[in-house]
Design a protein that fits this description.
Blueprint lengths: L10 E5 L6 H10 L3 E6 L12 E5 L5 H11 L3 E4 L7 H6 L2 H20 L3 E5 L10 E2 L14 H21 L4 E6 L1 E3 L11 H11 L3 E5 L5 E2 L1 E3 H14 L4 E4 L5 E2 H12 L4 E5 L10 E2 L2 H6 L7 H18 L2
Parallel strand pairs: 1-2, 1-4, 2-3, 4-5, 5-7, 6-15, 7-12, 8-11, 9-14
Antiparallel strand pairs: 10-13
Helix pairs in contact: 1-7, 2-4, 4-5, 6-8, 6-10, 8-10
Amino acid sequence: MGSILMGTKGRILVTGCSGLVGTHLVKKLEDYGYSVVGVDLKYSKELPDSDRFIFQDMDLRDSDEVSVLFDHYEFDGVINAFGIKGSPIRAKENPLDFLEPSIKVNTNIIDNSYKHKCWLVFMSSVGVYEPAEVFVEDTVWKTLPSPNDWFPSWSKRIPELYLEAYKVQYGYDKWTIVRPANIFGEYDNFGEGATVIGATCRKVYESDGEIEAWGDGTPTRDFIYAGDVADGCIKCLEDKLHITTNLGSGEEISIKRMIETVSKVSGKEVKINWDTSKPNGDMRRKMSTNIQEEYGLLPKLGFEEGIKATYKHYENIRYCNR
């Protein structure tokens, strides 16, 4: 274990600290005056090199290690951004890759947050919902998840249920559950298995003036910038909001508009060749933002500025790696 740090506002644990949202969380928490302990299985060079950040490379599935971590640092709060990434094919063929680490890690984090009575923000997922045009928070437990998201969904639903069980049995309610929409941002995967925005940034960057896209561009999605997700998590922590809430953008973005926005911020004139022989997928997906609005959790930066930051980051990566 590293030395014990103390920021002016307290000490926060961030799991998944090298990830898409975790990296933003670490940087923003430092800016807000906290000291941060970040835990992940890999270290990202994007993480800050400062006297108020410590990185711990550890396996959070080990209950003894997690207990020692909490005892040593005496956290004032926890933001659990741990998650397992993978394609639908991987989820179908290797479901334990999602369930085993997620259940062990999240139960360890929840057990110790309860033991030390520190506030926990648990990052769930849009994947917990059944297919629908609008995702509303209180519908989850009246439905079953999509067969396509079956195992990843339960890897998030089970920890949500575990938190509720702690509340019922022990009265522990020092927690927030957030369910982000489709997240994008600078620290995303832009290579193999990339999400649609990460893949689009790569395609536009590499294009000679044309790119191919599936469907006809009319389906809409709820995209939210990773920095806005981080802001929402931090507000839930600071305000101690005992709620379950979506973290969505508040608007529906068509696939066509998304690609055109990436093209615009790139400065390129890119022709989109739509392959209508390929499926559109669900025509509409949107997060209800009523709870977000009530608690002041709507995005600050927004879609286009988030796309600009994401593309410029990817552009810099490619330039530096030439």
